Give the backbone structure.
Amino acid sequence: MDPGVAALLGALLALIGTTITAVLTSWSAHRQTRAQALVQHEQRQREQQEEAHATFLATAAQSRDELGDLLRLLRSQPSHPRIGQQLEQARSHVRAVHHAGATVALKGPPEVLEARHHVESGVAMFFASLAAAHDEIAVGATGSEYLRSCARQQLQLRGAMEQFAHAARLATAPPPATVEDQVNRAERTAIEAADGATLSWLVGMTADLLHEAPQQVDPTESPLSLGLDSIQYMQLTRAAKEQFEVPLEELWDLRSASLARIANHLEESHRSV
């Protein structure tokens, strides 16, 4: 072959390898950026939900404690002049619980909404029973039935708040990694670990056999899933054997592995030769 032609072909092959490497690097970086953006969005959403849940629980706890103090005062000193004022203060805290609950309904997630409703209802019913007991006592009655109802509602409210806290913890806990997530992480690691030239060669050979452009070949997929049949894969393994001096049997066993993993294996086997 003419030296000038050989030099031109060598430069062309180097350019093709560089182009494929750049495409693969760009593809991997874009995919990783998208995955990171999704994770960050979900993390921000969980943080906003956790803040809304904590505010709701704190507001409900303040209202519960104030209603409990008012219940004790009604039992011990039913004619105390401060009871009316405390009832008005308690009413404002009941409204605060409702407003905090509206934020929870807005932020979600749906799994906590029923538990939130039970807390809001518990606070409202506790207050309504206290107000009814006060009204009865003001006209000379004992209000004993309403006071007993208040005691039951106080316990129910405590249970409703515990259920909400439990539901909120479960709903905002980071989801466990799925098998797909683990596979994707493993393939990204394989791409990062693979030598660019080897992976570029493998992607280029696969693209030639598929009659596609190299940028259309996903290195996280296996040759078979990309569309190579057994004959085409045998052609690929023979070319790899000549290029990297790797036994055909090893490459045949990797036919279901991703191109990135095969590239890693080619590099390791070639270094050990």
